[in-house]
Amino acid sequence: MLQSIRILVWIFLFQGTCIGMFGQHSDRKTTLKVLGTVQDGGSPHLGCEKKCCASLTLNEKKLRKITALEVSQNSSSILFEATPDIIAQWSALSHPLKGIFITHAHMGHYSGLLHLGREALGAHNLNVYAMPKMRAFIRENGPWSQLVDLKNIQLLPLVNKKTVQVLDKINITPIVVPHRDEFSETVGYTIQGPNKTVLFVPDIDKWSLWEEDLVELLKSVDLAFLDATFFDREEVNFRPYSEIPHPFVKETMSLLENEPIEIKSKVYFIHMNHTNPLLNPKSEESFWVESQGFHIARFGQEFNL
Predict the structure, then answer these.
(1) What is the pLDDT of residues 82-91, one digit of tens each?
(2) Contact call for residues 34 and 228 (beta carbons, < 8 A)
(3) Quick one: which of 47, 99, 104, 206 could link to 186 by a disulfide (CB 3.0–4.6 Å)?
């Protein structure tokens, strides 16, 4: 009996050693979670009396958070974007936060940093990764500068196409994209986990203006969360389009129309304006997009990386 117990213990220890050697246990704990899918202004949108906002149920409102992603590994997390919905998104984090990556200085992507300051969380040297102009904007302008002065945050540098490593060997690479850069440059990110790589581009003016080839990038990654601010031109009939250029969902789909399903199925549309019918999973537009082989990001979705 004693010998049998010893054998069982040896098997258990051997399996644990193998898991540690080959990283299987760590891999299972590396996940990406969608913490928001809406454009900067949120949904319901301030002042909107249209059906898209006025008819939302309480449960629908709970699921409509501004675009953000969490990547977690080994009991720690990093966050992509500090949104105006950061309070609810913080509560939804899987693990304690070790850092935040910012794409650019538009309100939906960095304004949540305010909650890290003296009046709210009072964080201590939380790592905030940003490009040069974005870092300068935070350091040189109040109230953001107070976060640096009081050591609520620690600004860490990013360089275009230079990889930084976080958590347990998760590699993050910023890629500059063309966008309305009034206060900072704009980047997307590639996020490389143990087994899968993700492309995150929530804001871009047009794919044709980018130095990168979207199709080639999609071939090199496993998942892609792409700008879906507006569904089509008809949706943008209330403001001059020159003020808010984005690739329409229909444009992106047309660009990828002749690509195999293996490419299309990598795409998850994200960063949807409050007027975008794709926010409603039961809309005809949502069914149509999915019938063409594409996906639509939804709050709470999780992916193994």
Answers:
(1) 999 999 999 9
(2) no
(3) 104
